[in-house]
Design goal:
Helix content is 7%, strand content 33%. It is mainly β.
Length: 204
C-alpha cells in the first residue's frame, strides 16, 4: 500500500520540462537536484504508474547502514538526513525527487536514481506500453545560476520490455558532484529487487 511519511507542498517547487542538450559539467555541491518522471498524455494504458526513487549510498555502494530510511520513494517521502524528498504533482500525479545537496550527510557518497512501474507484476505492464515514458534530472552547475538539464532518457525506447531500471547516479567529486549514466545492465523486476541490490529490504 502506498503511504506518506512526510507532508510537502509540490506547488512550492518549480518544475521544468527537459532541455534537448545534455551537458557534462560539475554539479554545484550546495545546489539542488530534481529527478522527474513523466509520460505523454493520452496513452491508452491509464493504470500504468511510473515511480521514481532515490537511494543514498555509502562508500561500499550500499544503502547507508542497510537502513531503508535512506531510500526515498512513494512509501518514504523524506530521507533520514532530511536532504532528499519525494514529491507528487497534484495536477497530473507525476512524481519527482528533490535533493538539497548541501544537506546530504557527509558519509553518503552517491545518490542513485531509479524508475519502476507500480504493480508491474500484477498488471503485466512494461515501459514500452506507453509513449515517451521519460526520466530527466536537473541540477545547478558550478559557476552557472539556475537549473539546467543534466540527463534525460526515453524509457519507452530504451527499455521497452523492462519494468524497473536504475538510470544513473550522482557522486561526490571534491566539493562538487558528478553524474554517471547507468541503465544498460541495471534493469530489475521491481523496486524491491533494486532495493535488494543495494542492501535493503522493503518487505521486512
Amino acid at each position: 500500500m502506498r503511504g506518506i511519511d512526510d507532508h510537502d507542498d509540490p506547488s512550492t517547487t518549480t518544475r521544468r520540462r527537459p532541455f534537448s542538450v545534455a551537458r557534462n559539467q560539475k554539479i554545484r555541491g550546495e545546489g539542488d537536484l530534481i529527478a522527474h518522471v513523466g509520460r505523454k498524455a493520452g496513452t491508452h494504458v491509464d493504470d500504468l504508474k511510473l515511480d521514481v526513487s532515490a537511494f543514498l549510498l555509502g562508500s561500499d555502494d550500499k544503502v547507508m547502514y542497510g537502513d531503508r530510511t535512506y531510500c526515498v520513494f512513494y512509501n518514504n517521502h523524506l530521507s533520514t538526513d532530511r536532504s532528499t524528498r519525494f514529491l507528487e504533482d497534484e495536477t497530473d500525479g507525476s512524481e519527482f525527487i528533490l535533493a538539497h545537496l548541501k544537506d546530504v550527510e557527509e558519509s553518503v557518497r552517491k545518490i542513485v536514481f531509479a524508475v519502476s512501474i507500480y504493480d508491474a507484476d500484477v498488471l503485466s505492464h512494461t515501459f514500452g506500453l506507453v509513449t515517451d515514458a521519460r526520466f530527466w534530472l536537473e541540477g545547478e552547475f558550478a559557476n552557472k545560476p539556475g537549473l539546467s538539464e543534466i540527463h534525460s532518457d526515453n524509457l519507452s525506447e530504451l527499455f521497452p520490455d523492462q519494468t524497473a531500471v536504475v538510470i544513473g547516479e550522482v557522486y561526490r567529486s571534491g566539493k562538487s558532484w558528478d553524474y554517471r549514466k547507468l541503465g544498460a545492465g541495471h534493469t530489475y523486476a521491481d523496486l524491491a529487487e533494486i532495493g535488494s541490490a543495494y542492501g535493503v529490504r522493503f518487505d521486512a
